[in-house]
Amino acid sequence: MAIISIEDGEIEKIKDVFEKPYKSLLEKEIKFYACLGNHDIRTENGDLELKYPGFNMAGRYYTFQYHPIQFFALDT
Fold it and tell me: What's the mean pLDDT when you consider all of the chain?
């Protein structure tokens, strides 16, 4: 779990706050599943983060199953 905060809707900073720090994992095609939270209200209500493909967000609230485990993502 990590907090990836993009201030003031500056999605172009995604390289510095997500792609560079997690480069080795992204190169191994490890998927990340993000969830909006209290910081995202400052970034056009999280709309830009929702559209970013690297976060794999299916919406503000979503669920998925991995083997026998069900995961839930809730926008706080």
Answer: 84
Kindly report the backbone phi and psi dihedral angles of residue 31, in degrees, each rounded to the nearest multiple of 5, phi listed first. -85, 140
Pairing of strands 69-74, 61-66: antiparallel
- Three-class DSSP labels, 22-73: CHHHHHCCCCCCCCCCHHHHHCHHHHHHHHCHHHCCCCCEEEEEECCEEEEE
Residue 23: count of CB within 10 angstroms of its CB: 11
Cα distance between residue 33 and residue 42, in whole Å? 20
- pLDDT at position 9, please? 58
Name the token pair of 13: 């900073």
Res. 37 pLDDT band, cuts 50 70 90:
confident
